[in-house]
## 1
Amino acid sequence: MKVVSFSCKIYDRQQLCRSFPPSWDSQTVEPILDKHTVVYAKDADVVSAFVNDQLNAEILQILAGYGVKMVALRCAGFNHVDLAAAHRLGIKITRVPAYSPYAVAEHTIGLMLALNRKLYKAYNRVREGNFALNGMLGFDFYGKTVGVIGAGKIGRLVGERMKAFGCQVLVYDPYECSACEALGLEQVPLATLYQRCDVITLHCPLTAETNHLINADSIAKMKKGVMLINTGRGALMEPESLVAGLKSAQIGYLGMDVYEKEGALFFEDHSCEIIQDDVFERLLSFPNVLVTGHQAYFTQEAITHIAETTRDNIQMFMDGELLLNEVTA
Ligand code: NAI
């Protein structure tokens, strides 16, 4: 049984080595899966792939020609897979439905705390012998109102944790959140959330409806100086409106773990290159913006869970069992 895993950084390779049975012929490839690298999948039975791997009809056709019968995604999202083509070619697709909602919720709160108390500035100042406090003034989260957009697994964990800080937590979700009331999270219309919240954090999926949910119009409805946090998906926010909102001080703080055009930047070292994305570079130039490179999920527990679920998905396929995490068109 030959399994070829694409987009494998050193930490992925180490984890897959630990989690995959030694009896499998398991090979890892660092580059993303695309038309130049697909050849590495020759003679494979199974391909494992991550968020930026290309699984369009053309690539799937080549994989089918190599004898690949299954693509085991090591991620939750499958918007990058042509499911209809996979079905036509008889290739099964599975995914890892959730890695660790705790990891993402904790990183979200980390961004809030770091932005408020300027921890990223304090780190550099103190190391340079500068112990001055000017420019470091923060606020108490206690008594503030936090808005959570998307009351799913991650959103509810964030809400619960902000309650522990003494915040009032409002949630918006198009579906009734039956678990919210018991957690003390008040479900409100989106307009109310925009109007009342000091901090707004995004935990809804990226869909046609939520694409650019945060734009000039919605930003104008928020409190002046609002803290905006996005650990959901980059395209939930319209980047040019963020720049305008920061310039006018309508946005007081911005924390992002995801960015609309992150595919060209994230997960790689571009420190010796000239970054061409002017909007991204402008966002980084603000002192009240903190960006991390899609690392909210990145905990030992989460990557272990990803590898083990991928292993189980492949094993189920080999054993001819019902694929619990299969995705179909
Ligand atoms: P979930 O499926 O448990 O919750 C999503 C919630 O959003 C659901 O309650 C759903 O009803 C709600 N929703 C759907 N449409 C909405 C809309 N138009 N407005 C507001 N809410 C809406 O998903 P989970 O596990 O909580 O993940 C949330 C998001 O976090 C994912 O979609 C993904 O984009 C992102 N994520 C980010 C990671 C990172 O490393 N930065 C890692 C994992 C997930």
## 2
Amino acid sequence: MTPKRLPVVEEILAANDDAAARNRALLDAHGVHCVNVMASPGAGKTTLITQTALALGERRRLGVIEGDVASSVDTETVRALGLPAVQINTGGGCHLDAPQVGAALEQLPLDALDLLFIENVGNLICPVGFDLGEHTRLAIASVPEGDDKPHKYPGIYSAVDVLVVTKVDLLPYVPFDMATFHRLARSLNPNIAILEVSCTTGAGMDAWIAWLLERATNGRP
Ligand code: MG
Ligand code: ZN
């Protein structure tokens, strides 16, 4: 039996999908590959974005949209690196939607960008239900959160293209079994790419950057 959705929810999602299609067309017209970054609070979204920008150097021109319930601290961190960045404050909303991203895109110099990272609101549940017009959906899982997260949040693990496991330098200090984590994630999403990184030591960053460059060059739907 197909679960029934309330008509008002159907309308909201249809409006979101229309706006997402417009965002994607705009990004395509400017040759910008867009990555929607989703994770729980504190998993290391902003840090992965800033370390990726530093590792890419001059190879790709990066812009960032920062989504947060409140504040602009992450946007200030990103701008300090010289990257164009736009803040979206959701005012309590627990995910970004495509109309919000569409308004942010108008404030970015798209002709001067190759890659756009959207840092979604820290939340493992609803962000994945809203297409923003991205080309790649990325989830971050950090080692201190534990290796059982795919069990608890199957929706996001089933839906993303790539999973980046962060803070692997903490593996000696916390109970996190990497093989178990991979097995759980692949049981939900057999084709998922899994990269393991430490933004502190730099371990795994070369492989992540190689994956990203390959995806941004050849992986556009
Ligand atoms: Mg952040
Ligand atoms: Zn939400």
